[in-house]
Amino acid sequence: MATITLRVDDKARDDLEALARGRGATVSDLLRASIFEMLGRDVPTDDTSSTPLTLTVVERCHLALQHESLAMLHSDDEHEADYHRRMVEVLTKGYTGEYYRVFAGISPELSRRDCRLLRDLLDMFCVLKASLDRLDAAEKNSLGEGAEVRLSFQGFDFNDAYESRLANYAQHLIDTDRWQDLAENFDDEHERGNSHSPRLATYLRMLESFQPIWSAKVKDSGLSHDDRYALNLNELHTVLAAWPYPRK
């Protein structure tokens, strides 16, 4: 495995160490995950990836009190109440090997960069959808066979941990009435947005072609409102050309 040396100032180092401790990871783990995300690669995780290695006494006290309260609130459900009582014991006695049970169901954070990327992708596909809707049948045919499908949002691969997290965030945004033009892609007919094969690398290539076109159009005051917020045939061809994997 290759080694990369990175120099940062003391404050950045201290902040990274604090962030890593808070996530129960090392600085190397933290930076490695960020690098994988920048490269569009799946970030290696395991079943305890969201479980801190240690908790402060104050954190343990706060969590134990919450579980005590939940045990009382669920006193009519012996199974649920027993779970919370066991978590109180885990936390008060500091059984770090059992912390994963306390944090079960908590996913790793989706970074601001990831959230911004997902929003950019949804914006792109909304524009592409609106642009395709403006075309007549002859114009759509001129794009080539299968072009309309390739220029449409196809969801994410639920078998890929990173793509699955992006899909969950997309569903969250749509559930809160944003990007409603793409809502149908998350219905039962479309398997809740599951593409069943990786899509992110393709989307990133398309986005790289789309963004310069979109930025120039939005700034062009000479365009009509309709032309400024939709792509023409030539521009759609440019984005479409980024869809296939590049040949070596």
From TrEMBL:
Signal peptide: none annotated. CDD domains: RHH_CopG_NikR-like (cd21631). It comes from the Bacteria. This is YfbU family protein.
